[in-house]
Amino acid sequence: MTRTVYNTATSLDGFIATEDHSLDWLFATDSDEAEGEIGEFLKGIGALLMGASTYEWVHRHEGGEGWAYAMPSWVLTHRELPAFEGGNDIRFASADSDDELRALHAKAAESAGDKDLWLMGGGKVAADLARLGLLDEVIVSIAPVTLGAGAPLLAGRVDLKPVEVHRAGDFACARYEVVRP
Q1: Taking each helix axis from N to C terminus, what angle separates 98-111 and 123-131, rounded to the nearest 10 degrees?
Q2: Model pTM?
Q3: DSSP per residue over 131-172, as a string?
Q4: pLDDT in tens, 16-51
Q5: What is the pLDDT of residue 34?
Q6: pLDDT digits (tens, 9 = 90+) for 122-141
């Protein structure tokens, strides 16, 4: 059965991006071990879901070339976003209501096949999925930096049960199950 897993990095004070949506702070730390863990994680992923700001940062960072993911990728947006070069399976969609988000999640989960759906970025999307009972797990790599402000790790209440904690390079990594009411 496909699970939805929010796997992201955060600053120590709980932000996944700066106020101007940059992730540059993330690459100022020793992340080799954490990157190795992502490689292993990706073996179990069949589809990807992300917010528009995450997608835009990846597009800028990669220069519009070399989308790194072979699996179907869904981007939540209300804007026209630039495409990556090549025949990538990137789908742009909006979800303005709980019903639309449920429907989009169902399509993305179905496209994952027998693997998991990775929520790559979007603290609001993660909190909304959790509120709707659609988020199963949160994996967080905590960087040794504070940002003071920015995009929150989770933009709403999400109750979690700790499953695992370990260190990967400079990162403290934690895995949680989402507690459903």
Answers
A1: 100
A2: 0.92
A3: HTT---EEEEEEES---SSSEES-SS---EEEEEEEEETTEE
A4: 999 998 888 888 776 666 667 888 899 999 999 999
A5: 64
A6: 899 999 999 999 999 999 99
Neighbours of 154 (CB within 10 A): 22
State the Cα angle at 109 between 160 and 33, rounded to 5°.
Answer: 60
* Side chain identity, residue 31: S
Instruction: Specify burial of residue 133 (Cβ count, 10 A radius: 0-12, 13-18, 19+).
Output: exposed
Query: H helices of the chain, where?
Result: 32-42, 52-62, 98-111, 123-131
Sheet bearing 171-178, strands edge to edge: 90-93, 73-76, 45-51, 116-121, 4-11, 137-143, 171-178, 160-168
- DSSP bridge pairs for 119: 6, 49
Strands 116-121 and 4-11: parallel
